[in-house]
């Protein structure tokens, strides 16, 4: 008899749980909408190479945007960034294409230090595991060796 009650209780728990879940589609849809609260544009010039960065900040603090790097000798890297600030450093994944005909798509991490209103692109050791690239933990990112310092400009 005690086992029957125990089995009945075990079967009732999932039923009660599923009944409390109800129709949360309105809550889910509201949670998925994340509006842009601010935008900022930046430009970096290093000799004959330039980089344009457009960032959008969402209400939840997520950063998205576009980054185009024009290399005089190599061509253009055109892509999207997505990430977030951790302290004064912006960590993003940069998904970009190289080449115009049959472009190859790459995804690399980038780090920008926000200092004096500018964003300084950092250089760090990157490794790839299971098809994902990331900065090596425990290895510092150098913002002194970065080529590009992004100064704020008016968005076009």
Helix percent reads 10-25%
Number of helices: 2
What order do the helices and strands follow?
A: HHEEEEEEEEEE
Q: Which percent range describes the beta-strand content? A: over 45%
User: What order do the strands of the largest sheet run in, or round the barrel if closed?
Assistant: 1-2-3-4-5-6-7-10
Please tag this protein with its features:
two-stranded antiparallel sheet, 2 helices, single chain, 8-stranded antiparallel beta barrel, 156 residues
3D architecture notes:
With 156 residues, the chain is of the alpha+beta class. The chain has one domain: Lipocalin (Beta Barrel). 18% of the residues lie in helices and 53% in strands. It has helices spanning 2-21, 25-32, and strands at residues 36-46, 49-58, 62-71, 75-86, 89-98, 104-115, 118-121, 126-129, 132-135, 149-153. Strands 1-2-3-4-5-6-7-10 form an 8-stranded antiparallel beta barrel. A two-stranded antiparallel ribbon has the order 8-9. The mean pLDDT is 83.
List the helices and strands and how they pair.
Layout lengths: L1 H20 L3 H8 L3 E11 L2 E10 L3 E10 L3 E12 L2 E10 L5 E12 L2 E4 L4 E4 L2 E4 L13 E5 L3
Antiparallel strand pairs: 1-2, 1-10, 2-3, 3-4, 4-5, 5-6, 6-7, 7-10, 8-9
């Amino acid at each position: 008899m005690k086992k029957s009650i125990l089995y009945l209780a075990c079967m009732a728990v999932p039923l009660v749980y599923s009944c409390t879940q109800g129709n949360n589609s309105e809550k889910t849809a509201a949670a998925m909408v994340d509006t842009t609260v601010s935008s900022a544009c930046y430009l970096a010039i290093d000799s004959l190479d330039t980089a344009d960065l457009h960032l959008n900040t969402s209400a939840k603090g997520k950063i998205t945007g576009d980054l185009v790097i024009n290399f005089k000798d190599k061509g253009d890297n055109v892509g999207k960034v997505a990430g977030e600030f951790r302290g004064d450093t912006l960590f993003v994944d940069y998904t970009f294409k190289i080449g115009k005909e049959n472009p190859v798509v790459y995804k690399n991490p980038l780090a920008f230090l926000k200092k004096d209103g500018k964003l300084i692109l950092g250089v760090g050791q990157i490794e790839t595991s299971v098809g994902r690239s990331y900065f090596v933990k425990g290895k510092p990112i150098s913002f002194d060796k970065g080529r590009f310092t992004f100064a704020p400009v008016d968005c076009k």
